[in-house]
């Protein structure tokens, strides 16, 4: 059963782990202030995984850089760029070795807490399963919740 | 070559530096003149107070014929709000190598990313202090002849103590067994314990110093650092919790070494100073030859095989 109608143009993010769609919205800086239609369904049954979230963003094609931000919360999501009701492109999400200017380090005494310092914020991905991310400068571990709270 | 954490050096590179340091001892003592770094300039960037580290870097550079620029935070442009990035751009033009101490963790890596000259981390907040680690390893080898298989006790402020953060990594990599002795509020950060376990290091945690003394080869005492506590009341709860005096040493191993990065407050009673166990003043001197070796390495200058 299709819960949300097909979109004409835009991006569909399918197979988001159930419950993570709100985090995906935060990572894409979608906060309701934009005018394009956005459809969100959560915890729907799926044949591939038991339950999933789906996000349809109309009239906006997400760049690969934007999509890669989602690797932390939805690395298994399937991405489709839709043009004229058809799938024009399929894209994969990739978690690189380093997250550059995606989130700030959350440690209060890290040198990067000084907002006047101009170098990029760098978080290193030490392992993906389990996920372990540390600031490239102060080497403090960053939890997923901290990263989401410190998104740039 | 930058030295930000001990991870910048392989075990072989560390040993090679310690061997260079050994050769440089007569130069460090002033008995041999060897101007290997003549014409080179070291910038000593101490944004936080230091006695031994700053002075030993300065002595090391001067004994090798080099020049030293000293920057302290008081009265500097840093007080006027200059970023570390901007300060480093200036230093990049003035010096060939820089030693940096900074209250903010990660500052040394940040400085290294900002400029091209080699950066030597002389302590960043509660982060790392790898040049102290090199001199600690040098001292342990001097006393024990090896590192592998030793039982080492790290005692005191393991949470904020950057010396023990760097040292524990290095000792773990060299195959020493570690007992981490601290009150619960000053335990070693989880990231470091997890790193030690994942490298296969035999690591135990305890809050009791006396129960581990007898089986130890090295007891590394640290000061509980008042300045790192966000809350004075928390400091008072643990200040003076671990103290060693001559009476505690009746059944220790004869070759046991007591070390301390100094300054001490009351962790080691002065009655120990004249015993065979006291290594902390030799350890402080060893900062000079190890930092000499490091300055030469970072500037690409080879230390001759035979000196003197």
Summary, kept brief:
The complex is a heterodimer of chains A (152) and B (308). Helix content of chain A is 14%, strand content 35%. Chain A contains 4 helices and 9 strands.
Description:
- The complex is a heterodimer of chains A (152) and B (308).
- Chain A has 152 residues and is α+β, with helices and mostly antiparallel strands.
- Chain A has two domains: 10-91, 2-Layer Sandwich (Alpha-Beta Plaits); 98-149, Roll (SH3 type barrels), CATH 2.30.30.
- Helices cover 14% and strands 35% of the residues of chain A.
- Chain A is built from four helices and nine strands; from the N terminus they run βαββααββββββα.
- Chain A has helices at residues 21-27, 64-68, 71-74, 144-149, and strands at 10-17, 38-45, 51-58, 78-83, 86-91, 98-100, 122-128, 131-135, 141-142.
- In chain A, strands 2-3-1-4-5 form a five-stranded antiparallel beta sheet, with no helix packed on it. A four-stranded antiparallel beta sheet of chain A has the order 6-7-8-9.
- In chain A, a hairpin with a 5-residue loop joins strand 2 (38-45) and strand 3.
- Chain A is elongated.
- The termini of chain A are far apart.
- The model of chain A has no long low-confidence stretch (mean pLDDT 91).
- Chain B has 308 residues and is of the alpha/beta class.
- Chain B folds into two domains: 6-128 and 287-298, 3-Layer(aba) Sandwich (Rossmann fold), CATH 3.40.50.1370; 130-284, Rossmann fold (3-Layer(aba) Sandwich).
- Helices cover 37% and strands 15% of the residues of chain B.
- Chain B has a five-stranded parallel beta sheet, covered by helices on one side. In chain B, strands 2-1-3-4 form a four-stranded parallel beta sheet, sandwiched between helices.
- In chain B, strand 5 (151-155), helix 7 and strand 6 (177-181) form a beta-alpha-beta unit.
- In chain B, helix 1 (11-23) crosses helix 6, helix 3 crosses helix 11 and helix 6 packs across helix 11.
- The model of chain B has no long low-confidence stretch (mean pLDDT 94).
- Chain A binds chain B through residues 105, 107, 109-114, 116-119, 134-141, and chain B through 5, 81, 83-85, 102-107, 109-110, 113-114, 124-128, 190-191.
């Amino acid at each position: 059963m299709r819960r949300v109608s097909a979109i004409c143009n835009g991006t569909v993010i399918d197979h988001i782990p159930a419950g993570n769609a709100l985090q995906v919205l935060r990572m894409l800086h979608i906060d309701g202030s934009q005018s394009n239609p956005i459809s969100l369904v959560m915890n729907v049954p799926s044949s591939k995984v038991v339950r999933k979230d789906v996000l349809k963003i109309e009239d906006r094609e997400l760049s690969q850089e934007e999509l890669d931000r989602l690797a932390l919360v939805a690395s298994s999501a399937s991405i489709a760029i839709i043009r004229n009701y058809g799938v024009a492109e399929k894209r994969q999400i990739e978690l690189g070795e380093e997250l550059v200017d995606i989130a700030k380090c959350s440690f209060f005494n890290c040198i990067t807490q000084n907002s006047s310092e101009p170098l990029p914020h760098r978080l290193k991905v030490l392992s993906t399963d389990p996920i372990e991310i540390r600031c490239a400068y102060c080497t403090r571990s960053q939890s997923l919740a901290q990263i989401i709270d410190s998104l740039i | 070559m930058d030295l930000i954490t001990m991870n910048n050096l392989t075990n072989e590179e560390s040993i090679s530096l310690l061997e260079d340091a050994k050769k440089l001892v007569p130069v460090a003592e002033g008995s041999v003149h060897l101007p290997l770094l003549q014409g080179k300039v070291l910038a000593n960037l101490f944004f936080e107070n230091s006695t031994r580290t700053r002075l030993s870097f300065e002595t090391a550079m001067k004994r090798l014929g080099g020049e030293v620029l000293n920057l302290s935070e008081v009265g500097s442009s840093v007080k006027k709000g200059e970023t570390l990035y901007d300060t480093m751009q200036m230093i990049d033009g003035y010096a060939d190598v820089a030693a940096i101490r900074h209250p903010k963790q990660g500052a040394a890596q940040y400085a290294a990313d900002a400029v091209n000259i080699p950066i030597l981390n002389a302590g960043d907040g509660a982060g790392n202090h790898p040049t102290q680690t090199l001199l600690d390893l040098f001292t342990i080898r001097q006393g024990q002849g090896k590192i592998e298989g030793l039982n080492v006790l790290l005692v005191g402020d393991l949470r904020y103590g950057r010396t023990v953060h760097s040292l524990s990594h290095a000792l773990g990599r060299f195959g020493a067994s570690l007992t981490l002795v601290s009150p619960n509020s000053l335990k070693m950060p989880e990231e470091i314990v997890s790193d030690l376990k994942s490298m296969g290091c035999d690591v135990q945690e305890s809050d009791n110093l006396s129960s581990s003394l007898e089986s130890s080869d090295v007891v590394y005492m640290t000061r509980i650092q008042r300045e790192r506590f966000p809350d004075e009341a928390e400091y008072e709860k643990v200040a003076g919790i671990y103290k060693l005096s001559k009476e505690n040493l009746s059944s220790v191993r004869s070759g046991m070494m007591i070390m301390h990065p100094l300054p001490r407050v009351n962790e080691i009673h002065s009655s120990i100073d004249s015993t065979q166990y006291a290594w902390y003043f030799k350890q402080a001197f060893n900062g000079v030859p190890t930092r000499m070796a490091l300055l030469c390495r970072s500037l690409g200058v080879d230390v001759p095989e035979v000196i003197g």
